[in-house]
Amino acid sequence: MSAKPYPPARRSETVYTLHGHVIPEPYDYLEDPGNPETTAFVTAQNACFNAYMASSQDLRDRIEATVTAIQHYAPHGGPDATR
User: Fold this and answer.
1) In Å, how far from its chain's centre is CA 51?
2) DSSP 71
3) Is 3 within a domain?
4) DSSP string, 67-82
5) Which of 21, 36, 59, 70 is most buried by a 10 A CB count?
6) Per its UniProt record, what InterPro entries does this chain match (predicted)?
């Protein structure tokens, strides 16, 4: 399998100041699901992932089995305050 480049993501100059510390947030625009840039990036990421996964049915089957197994657990509730 040949290596495929990941979709590019633009880096913004956005920074936040928190408790006097400047924190860069170069991918903040990707947090908005309504942003066309976000939609295009996610579509490209999904295409990259799907192209990789298409070449390995065994890996897909193992991932599906693992996810299915961890989603099936005995239900638990909170404590019953009426007792």
Assistant:
1) 17
2) H
3) no
4) HHHHH---------TT
5) 59
6) AB_hydrolase_fold, Pept_S9A_N, Prolyl_oligopep/macrocyclase
